[in-house]
Design goal:
33 strands; alpha+beta; Pdz3 Domain; Thrombin, subunit H; six-stranded antiparallel beta barrel; six-stranded antiparallel β-barrel; 14 helices; 4 domains
């Protein structure tokens, strides 16, 4: 039959007719298809153009050849239309079954149907609309100050060469220097309709002037109501009424993976809203220890974009309620690099209410010492920290709530009011939202036995014997209380003698010698080693010790000490 040799029958339609620079061939079913490619063996493009320009072939066609062409064309067209229709129908149904796999009916195309895999698309509009009007822009001014010569922050390098007069060019006058005016900005959250705003302590600390700009562009002068460096929180107030404000959600209910929005004024821009998820809870960064000897940190970590200027702004849930106050970012550059940290709302609410009511935060203490959440294995061995569930008690302060409840060094605190605590940070978070006098139930393990006892929290932590000894160890010296006879001979009321010196702060920072008698620490008299320990411990990061040498008791020497309590 004529159709048994289709290759020979149709061959004339695929034999190209050569010209000088490109090929022209007859196309069977596409009257305008053009293909351009570059040949690897030829320096110039080799064009193949398919068209119906050579009509001479049609003059030699026979009738049955034309019928064959029409038949093949029609069959191909019908088959193509049928196949495309079947595929489109399968796609519209959301699945495509393969006859080669009986289970393929469970396969689904990754098509967009207006919903996420777990349900409806997340809607940020409600939270953003509710939150943005209550987040404010805080602008601060710190006026220029004259710094005295003994408080110079940086020595003028030209003073020795050109004298004091040249220093005036750099703002210096005589033995002092001028600190220039500084301007900065941050964010804040309205928490009452009458103008109380919560923000970060580091936003307003040291500022001489505060200006608050609302979302509607109205400006107000603000005053600081109170600050709490331990939590890096502060409350300010503006004279206005009927303002939009946000409510606090329970931060204990925040969970990993939860959607959140960060609202603030980053980089001095207008109101900015970014989204992310909660990526961690109860983070301790050590950042608040820069301004407080008793820092409280239990940050919510999020990947919502937060930049300088966001400090003090709101972290809200999808209902638009505050779950945290943005405070810090982890970054090698100072700008957003993936993670931001917010103070949990339960702590914010407690501190803010205290400041509004009392002017300062009323903090409660349990009175136990524990190690850092990131303590190295070497430090754990050095401090004899045991492995176990809960928080290992490294020491118990005398006179503390924990001591009165029977908690001892070496115990493990496992629960606070029935809620499990796995780290010291989690335990501090539970206690820091309470007040002195509040009664809680503490569960702890002592010598393998679990106990639950009622504890009444106190307004101070008590005295840790190990801390006072640690302070003395930093000095690198052994001390002895001066007896009464020796003191009388030197016409002293008392004192503490340096018996021996080793490597430490005294040898690194001073020229003190063995035999020196310490009589005062920061103008506070010390007559015993215990009083010396307490005075040094309460001195913060620096102290001035005063005293005499036995051979010249009429001459008083003073030595300045820095970097004290650095290991606390």
């Amino acid at each position: 039959m004529w159709f048994k040799k289709p290759r020979k029958l149709l061959a004339p339609f695929f034999e190209p007719h050569r010209t000088n620079s490109f090929h022209i061939g007859v196309g069977c079913f596409n009257t305008s298809f053009t293909e351009i490619y570059r040949s690897a063996s030829e320096p110039a493009p080799n064009l193949v153009l398919y068209s119906l320009s050579n009509l001479k072939f049609y003059t030699v066609m026979k009738t049955r050849q034309l019928i064959a062409i029409i038949f093949v064309s029609a069959a191909t067209a019908v088959g193509t239309i049928w196949g495309v229709g079947k595929i489109q129908g399968s796609i519209q149904n959301g699945s495509f079954a393969s006859s080669a796999n009986p289970n393929s009916g469970n396969l689904h195309f990754a098509k967009y149907n207006g919903e996420s895999a777990g349900g409806p698309i997340v809607d940020f509009e409600k939270a953003a609309t509710k939150g943005a009007p209550a987040v404010v822009h805080i602008k601060t001014v710190t006026k220029a100050k004259q710094v005295s010569g003994n408080q110079e922050l940086q020595r003028n390098p030209f003073k020795d060469l050109f004298g004091d007069q040249f220093g005036d060019l750099f703002g210096g006058h005589g033995n002092g220097m001028s600190s220039p005016e500084q301007r900065a900005s941050g964010s804040g959250v309205l928490i009452t309709q009458d103008g109380y705003i919560v923000t970060n302590n580091h936003v307003v600390d040291g500022a001489d002037e505060l200006t608050v700009t609302l979302n509607d562009k109205k400006d107000y002068k603000a005053k600081v109501i109170g600050r709490d460096p331990s939590t890096d929180l502060a409350v300010i107030n503006i004279d206005a009424k009927d303002l939009p404000f946000l409510s606090f959600a329970n931060s204990d209910n925040v969970h990993l993976g939860q959607w959140v929005l960060a609202i603030g004024y980053p980089l001095n821009l207008e109101t900015t809203v970014t989204s992310g998820i909660v990526s961690a809870k109860s983070r301790n960064l050590g950042i608040n220890s820069r301004n407080s000897k008793s820092p409280v940190e239990s940050f919510i970590q999020t990947d919502a974009a937060v930049n300088p200027g966001n400090s003090g702004g709101a972290l809200v849930n999808l209902d638009g309620d505050v779950i945290g106050i943005n405070s810090a970012i982890a970054s090698p550059t100072g700008s957003y690099a993936g993670y931001a940290y917010a103070i949990p709302s339960n702590l914010v609410q407690k501190v803010a209410n205290d400041i509004i009511q009392y002017g300062s935060s009323k903090r409660a203490y349990l009175g136990v010492m524990f190690g850092s959440d990131q303590m190295s294995e070497e430090d754990r061995k050095k401090n004899d920290v045991k492995e176990g569930d809960g928080v290992f008690v490294m020491d118990v302060a005398s006179g503390s709530a924990a001591a009165e409840a029977g908690i001892q060094k070496g115990d493990f605190v496992t629960k606070i009011n029935g809620n499990k605590v796995n780290t010291g940070t989690e335990m501090v978070e539970k206690i820091s939202v309470l007040h002195p006098g509040d009664k809680i139930n503490v569960t702890f393990v002592h010598n393998g036995s679990e106990k639950s006892v009622p504890v009444t929290l106190k307004e101070n932590a008590g005295v840790y014997a190990s801390v006072k000894q640690q302070v003395i160890d930093q000095l690198g010296a052994s001390f002895e209380s001066l007896d009464k006879n020796a003191a009388q001979k030197l016409h002293l009321s008392g004192g503490v003698m340096v018996k021996s010196l080793e490597q430490g702060i005294l040898t690194d920072q001073t020229r003190i010698k063995e035999g020196f008698i310490v009589t005062q620490v920061n103008n506070t008299s010390v007559n015993t080693v215990e009083e010396l320990k307490e005075a040094i411990k309460n001195s913060g990061n620096s102290a001035v010790i005063s005293g005499v040498y036995p051979e010249a008791p009429q001459t008083v020497y003073q030595y300045a000490l820095n970097d004290l309590n650095s290991s606390k």
